[in-house]
Amino acid sequence: MEPSLPSASSSLKPYACDTCSYRCSRSDGLKEHARTHTGEKPYACNICGTTYATSRSLKKHFLTHTGEKLYACDTCGYRCSQSQRLKEHARTHTGEKPYACDVCEYRSSQLAHLKTYACDICGYTCTTSGSLTSHTRTHTGEKPYACDTCGYTCTTSSSLKSHTRTHTGEKPYTCDICDICGYTCTTSCSLKKHFRTHPGQKPYYACDVCEYRCSRLAHLKIHARTHTGEKPYACDVCEYRCSRLAHLKIHARTHTGEKPYACDVCEYRCSRLAHLKIHARTHTGEKPYACDVCEYRCSRLAHLKIHARTHTGEKPYACDVCEYRCSRLAQPECERNYYRTSFFLSQPAHPMPEIAASDCGGLRLMMWEHPCSIIDHASFCASGNDGEGLAEVIS
């Protein structure tokens, strides 16, 4: 693109763009501007491959890899890698909103917030063209970014970078507000949430019904459904409904049979990442949950809660037929008790009455703690048998 000849009226900015009304004082500035029309991005990051139209943008990008934050807020200690971001941040303290909408009374602290891009399919609006491109993939199903390690695919390069850290263990974001907590994390979003735990940062959102508090308004709305009972997400296959979209996606795997999470040690696969983490402890022997009263340790929080009842004496499960109460629900995967139960049922002197679980809550007792106590109890409720002699049969 050749610069237009300067005129007397444009002596301060003699270089004019042939496409739009942009003018500048330097020829290299005009070349950089021309790339906003051509889309050319000749400057590439040698670490992640991201390209930029100017060398300045590339230098700013490098700081995301080094973690260097040259600019600091004088009010709260906030630090960032770009001077423009610091200026925008300062407005959170001053309340300044210099950018005004020409149509309504809306004002903003950032110019980008005035620009809107709309989705042609659902009407979704956002402030950047890149966000609109990423959103469009939620309709098309396109996931162009793939993990080289596990095959994970996603819609944005930033999501892939965050995912890669689950393999490398890298946590490049560090809390620098105080020298005490030393908090590190894999995403800037997690760091922003953490910032709110420090005094002087953005306040938490509190539930009007209970004492629940959170750092994001969206989380408070989700929590509110535990009180209202609202379940806006419905399964297309069955009548299952839930309060969170993430739960619906997990539920869908019960129909598709999809088990995307695989154990690195054995052939175990599962549909939820949380289940894989719990399973991994069967190999590592890790027991992160400890009892405050005794030395008992276990690999699952649910087991610790059940164990705690041996100290408190709590028995939340009640029989519908009599006054019997117990501390656990059934765990049919207990093979030892299964064989004990089968042996008992084979004894003609002590036939097992046909009682459904709905008729006797005690049938669902955790049987490996009190072998055959469910059977003893059910027999007592149904036939009045005092249970004497059952110990001899079972033993």
From TrEMBL:
Gene3D superfamilies named in the record: Classic Zinc Finger
InterPro entries referenced in this protein's UniProt entry, alphabetically: Znf_C2H2_sf, Znf_C2H2_type
SMART domains tied to this protein: ZnF_C2H2
UniProt cross-references to PROSITE patterns, sorted A to Z: ZINC_FINGER_C2H2_1, ZINC_FINGER_C2H2_2
Domain C2H2-type residues, every copy: 15-42, 43-70, 71-98, 117-144, 145-172, 173-203, 205-232, 233-260, 261-288, 289-316
Localization annotation: Cytoplasm; Nucleus
Primary location group: cytoplasm
Origin: domain of life: Eukaryota
SUPFAM superfamilies (alphabetical): beta-beta-alpha zinc fingers
Protein keywords: Activator, Biological rhythms, Cytoplasm, DNA-binding, Metal-binding, Nucleus, Transcription, Transcription regulation, Zinc, Zinc-finger
Family indicated by similarity: Belongs to the EGR C2H2-type zinc-finger protein family.
The protein, known as: Zinc finger protein 572-like
Species of the source: Priapulus caudatus (Priapulid worm)
